[in-house]
From TrEMBL:
Protein name, UniProt field: VHS domain protein
Family: Belongs to the STAM family.
Single GO MF annotation: phosphatidylinositol binding
Superkingdom of origin: Eukaryota
Family annotation (Pfam families): SH3_1, VHS
InterPro entries: ENTH_VHS, SH3-like_dom_sf, SH3_domain, STAM, UIM_dom, VHS_dom
Compartments in which it is found: Endosome
GO-annotated biological processes: protein transport to vacuole involved in ubiquitin-dependent protein catabolic process via the multivesicular body sorting pathway
Phylogenetic placement of the source organism: Eukaryota, Metazoa, Ecdysozoa, Nematoda, Enoplea
Organism encoding this protein: Trichuris suis (pig whipworm)
């Protein structure tokens, strides 16, 4: 299991939950959501606690889209992970987090949280498995908060029923297996039937008629000429630019923009006169625009500050349009996210190294102070004579007065002990030069 800084065990759900609630997702990734639910179901109570803790961190993300995906993942875990995950949702910390989001400034997130609180309270009202959520719902209703009615579940959004999904997968697998068996038995018959049906369908297809808006003169052999106002039977319109059709002039290709399906459209007939003849030509003097390569992404504090100011000044009601450059500025700032994360990681590592160096320096200073205090303890040599028995030389006695007395040096030796305020006698050996 990976370890983070200072020996703290990392949450095993961090990577999986971050992928399931990534800001790059445009809609819920049900494959990752199922992986989270399966991991919680296969684990113990601590596993559910780790998952809930990780989801609480994602609820505090600065991107409302990430918060919405986290709420979708929480709802799916509540519906599919049983009592152990519901207990985590009903914990004091999680309920406080839901209350904070339900009364927050982001209206979309607050409505979504209140809708989930209402639905959880109603669905678990009989068994009482989520009593703290029911109490929260009742308290917020008394305070006057509105709870939007839950919308009809659409395919690809809302909560996800794991049992229903697995049942659908099993039914689909059985249907495919039966279909393969039938296909092996009736391969030859099916091929003949398909060919016959295709022939009948192609013969009985009602061809669409279009009306020419402009004159068109064929340049290639496979093109069809026509005049404005003529009716053309459409044969193939699979290509968005060139269609195939037939008329009394023959059949061939023609520009799709020269005709209309509205047979009642007014068309001015011009004919193929030299004066009014319209042709399709190509200009060889084409203006070539070179595409400048995109600049390398760099962290720009000025752009970040400008984007934050513009976001704060936007109108959440939608009555006032956003600045036209806001979208491009958001894209540029979002492109800096990887660099900012990398920079923050490097700063965090440097801070940790400096902290460790500071601890070592403080330990060394403390050891140095202790060693100095041990080595500088005063030693008083008591001797009855004025010199040592060794070869150090005679000993000079100095009086250390108390207070501000400064005339000790002028007092003869032997009378210094008569001075008032003398605290101690220090003996200092005089080393001969």
């Amino acid at each position: 299991m990976p370890l983070s800084l200072f020996g703290i065990t990392a949450n095993p759900f961090d990577e999986l939950v971050e992928r399931a609630t990534s800001e790059k997702l445009t809609s819920p990734n049900w494959g990752l959501i199922l992986d989270v639910c399966d991991r919680v179901n296969n684990g113990d109570a601590q596993t559910a606690s780790d998952c809930a803790l990780c989801l609480r961190k994602r609820l505090n993300h600065r991107d409302p889209h990430v918060v919405a995906l986290a709420l979708c993942l929480i709802d799916s875990c509540v519906n599919n992970c049983g009592h152990k995950f519901k207990s985590e949702v009903c914990s004091k910390e999680f309920v406080a987090e839901l209350l904070s989001k339900a009364t927050g400034s982001n209206r979309a997130v607050a409505d979504r949280v209140r809708s989930l609180i209402r639905r959880w309270s109603q669905e678990t009202g009989s068994d009482g498995s989520m009593e703290p959520i029911q109490n929260l719902y009742s308290e917020m209703k008394r305070e006057g908060y509105e709870f939007p009615a839950p919308k009809e579940k659409k395919k690809g959004s809302g909560a996800f029923d794991l049992n229903a999904f697995k049942q659908e997968e099993e039914d689909l697998a059985k249907a495919i297996q039966l279909s393969l068996k039938d296909q092996q038995v009736t391969t030859t018959t099916n091929q003949a039937s398909v060919q016959k049906l295709n022939t009948i369908s192609s013969e009985s297809t009602v061809r669409t008629t279009v009306k020419a808006l402009y004159d068109f003169e064929a340049v290639e052999d496979n093109e069809l000429s026509f005049q404005a106002g003529e009716y053309i039977t459409l044969i193939d319109d699979s290509d968005p630019n060139w269609w195939r059709g037939s008329s009394h002039r023959g059949d061939g290709l023609f520009p799709a923009s020269f005709v209309t399906r509205d047979l009642g459209a007014f068309v001015e007939r011009q004919g193929f006169s030299e004066e009014n003849k319209k042709t399709v030509s190509f200009d060889e003097n084409v203006l070539v625009t070179s595409i400048q390569p995109e600049k390398a992404v760099e962290i720009d504090e000025a752009k970040l500050d400008k984007c934050l100011i513009m976001l704060q000044e936007t109108d959440p009601t939608g009555e006032r349009a956003d600045p036209p450059e806001l979208l491009q500025l958001e894209r540029e700032c979002h492109a800096m996210s990887d660099l900012i994360d990398k920079e923050l990681s490097e700063i965090d590592q440097q801070h940790n190294r400096l902290t460790e160096a500071n601890v070592r320096l403080m330990d060394a200073m403390n050891l140095y102070d202790f060693a100095m205090s041990e080595s500088s303890m005063p030693v008083t040599h008591m001797a009855s004579q004025g010199q040592y028995t060794s070869n150090i030389g005679p000993i000079r006695q100095e009086m250390v007065p108390q207070g501000n007395f400064t005339g000790v040096d002028n007092v003869p030796i032997g009378q210094q002990n008569l001075l008032p305020g003398v605290a101690q006698v220090a003996t200092t050996p005089i080393v001969p030069m």
